[in-house]
Specification:
Largest interface: A-B, 45 and 42 residues
Strand content of chain B: 35-45%
Shape of chain A: globular
Number of strands of chain B: 12
CATH architecture of chain B: Beta Barrel
Bound molecules: zinc ion
Structural class of chain B: alpha+beta
Order of helices and strands of chain B: HEHEEEEEEEEEEEH
Number of helices of chain A: 3
CATH topology of chain B: OB fold (Dihydrolipoamide Acetyltransferase, E2P)
Helix content of chain B: 10-25%
CATH architecture of chain A: 3-Layer(aba) Sandwich
Strand order of the largest sheet of chain A: 2-1-3-5-4
CATH superfamily of chain A: Collagenase (Catalytic Domain)
Largest sheet of chain A: 5 strands, mixed
Oligomer: heterodimer
CATH class of chain B: Mainly Beta
Shape of chain B: elongated
Strand content of chain A: 15-25%
Distance between the termini of chain A: 38 Å
Largest sheet of chain B: 7 strands, antiparallel
Chain lengths: 186, 199
Amino acid sequence: MCWITVGVSWTTAVNSSDIRNYLGFRWETTPCIVMWNCDYETDQREAVRAAMSEWNGVADTDGSGLVASYLTNYVDSLNEVNWAYFKSSPIARTRFNIVDGYIVDATISLTLMVDWSVGATAGAYDIQSAVQHELGHVLGIAHCHESGGPCSLGSCPNNVMSPTFGTNQVRTTLTSYDITTYQSIY
Amino acid sequence: MKKKLVLVFVILFAFLCSACEIPREEKSTVYSYGLWPYYTFEEACEVADLIIVGTVKSVDKTYLVPAIQNPNPKSPSHYMALTDLTISVEKTLKGVEQKEIRYTQEGGETRDTIYVCDEIYELKEGERALLFLSEGDSIITWSVITNYGVIPVDQNGKITVSSTFFPGKSEDARSVQTQMDVDAYAEVISTYLATASAE
Ligand SMILES: [Zn+2]
């Protein structure tokens, strides 16, 4: 049986009440590290690394260069990505803890109740697309919405940060919505 | 005698303290963002084991279960909050007819933490909804198939549903939110299911 654990160890996050409830939340300084610490397939690990690279490739606007650089190393910590063994409606989830308006802790879980694939495969979900979406949440980015939000056009399902995702699909190109939201937060 | 009385008061105080809630504004918040499976109307009708219209009769206390293997008790994000609801079923569009079902909803509130789930309508006592559900496992009872599988019904019996969530409409380039009677939408589902099973 294979499962993934990716850990992310963070420093304190900054309060960003103006963007909260709209674009998302943020960490104050660079969340440091992401890890795998259990069984996984090599191609799954590479898919997750590719997801990290996509976010790392986005320039942050405050010039710190820190936020985009955290997703490259692997160490053990409290914050994790892990397979979830119970039945769950979403295929993946990111939970993060907000204290005084700051993200202080984030965890991604991927359900084992569906089939995962590397690339588009009938009946399975592409792991890079899902992890890239969840890493967007780890960074603090909220979902784009079909109405009421900045993503009010029919292109919403093309965004990595769109809340739904289908089987036999790959969605790993960060759209202008994904990038500008990230840059508005950082 | 005096000692006994003091002891009784101490125990009573400890009991009251353990039961007291932290004021809501002082609770910490755990946000949960899901990546939900995308289903067309036809797929949703196929995937759901149970499609019902019902009313929330009661809402149980929220409880926590580990969201990942080997959770760290210090990390609230390693747990997920679940709340069980009893729903009185008024109409069964698909699945085995039952008078009541237990529906497990993610999110809720514990003594010190508020668990917020993005994208999914959180049902409360007395509310009416149309639900696309799938059978649970040892932890949860019935669960919703995807985020738009909980469709709340307003006081006037109306629901708001995406124009693409109808038979043959999933390919429409643009979805608009449309309002209609829940009974009319239930009829759309029943008619579709009858046609699909006849094929
Ligand atoms: Zn999401």
